[in-house]
Amino acid sequence: MMISLADMKVNQIGTVIRVDGGAGLAKRLEAMGIREGKNITKLNCMMMRGPIIVKINGCQVALGRGMAKKIMVEVGT
Prior knowledge:
This protein is α+β, with helices and mostly antiparallel strands. The protein has helices spanning 23-31, 65-69, and strands at residues 2-4, 13-19, 39-45, 52-56, 59-63, 71-75. The chain has one domain (2-75): Ferrous iron transport protein A (FeoA) (SH3 type barrels, Roll).
C-alpha cells in the first residue's frame, strides 16, 4: 500500500517510492539521504504541528509536514 510519509504510523517502516515535488525539493531530500528505494522509519511526530522525525541510513532527520506529505512510501499491510 502506498501512502505519504506524513500518514505513516510511528515506528512503521516503508520504502521511498517517489517524491511529488520539484527539482529543488528532490535535491534537498537527496542531500538528507532520502531517495527512491531507501527504507525509512517514522520515529516521532506531534499531533497537529511540528516536524516529523524519521530514520534513514542510520541517521535521524527532521522533516516539515509539507515535505513529508510529498514523500510517497510503500508500506506493508
